[in-house]
Amino acid sequence: MNYFFMDDYDVIVIGAGHAGCEAALASARLGRKTLVLSINLEAIAMMACNPSIGGTGKGHLVKEIDALGGEMGLNIDKSFIQSKMLNVGKGPAVHSLRAQADKNKYHIEMKKTLEAQENLDIKQGEAVDLIIENGSACGVVLKTGAAYRSKAVILATGTFLRGKIFIGEWSFESGPNGLSSSIILSDNLVKHGLKLRRFKTGTPARVSGKTLDYSKMIEQPGDENIIPFSFMNEKLEQEQVPCWLTYTNEETHEVIRENFLKSALFGGQIEGVGPRYCPSIEDKVNRFADKKRHQLFIEPEGMDTEEMYVQGMSSSLPEDIQKKFYQTIPGLESCKIVRPAYAIEYDCIDPLDLKITLEHRDLKGLYCAGQFNGSSGYEEAAAQGLMAGVNASLKIEGKEPFVLDRAEAYIGVLIDDLVTKGTNEPYRIMTSRAEYRLLLRQDNADIRLTERSYFIGLASKERYDKYLHTKKVVSEEHIRLLEKSVSPTEAQDVMEKYGSTPLQNRVTLAELIKRPELSYRALGEIDCERPELSEHEADQLEVLIKYEGYITKQLLQVEKFKKLENRKLSPDFDYNQVSGLRIEAYQKLNKFKPLSLGQAGRISGVSPADINVLLIHLEKERRKK
Amino acid sequence: MEDTIAAIATAYGEGGIGIIRISGDKAKDILDQIFMAGLPVQFNGAESSELQDRTLCYGHIIDRKKKEIVDEVLAVYMKAPQTYTREDVVEINCHGSMISLRKTLDLIIKCGARMAEPGEFTKRAFLNGRLDLSQAEAVIDLVKAKTNMGYEVSVAQLAGSLSNTVRAIRDELLEVLAHVIVNLDYPDADIEELSYNSLKESLKQIRGRIEALVETAETGMIIKEGLKTVIIGKPNVGKSSLMNALLKESRAIVTEIPGTTRDTIEEIISLKNIPIRLVDTAGIRETEDSIEKIGIARSKDSFNGADLVIFVLNASEELSFEDYAIMDYVIEKKAIVLFNKVDLGQRLKKQDVLDVMPHAIVINTVITENQGIEELETAIFELVYGGKVKQQDSIMITNLRHKDLLKKASQCLGDALHMVDKKEALDFIEVDIKRSWELLGEIVGETVSEDIIDQVFSRFCLGK
Question: Do both A510 and A424 map to the same domain?
Answer without folding.
Answer: no
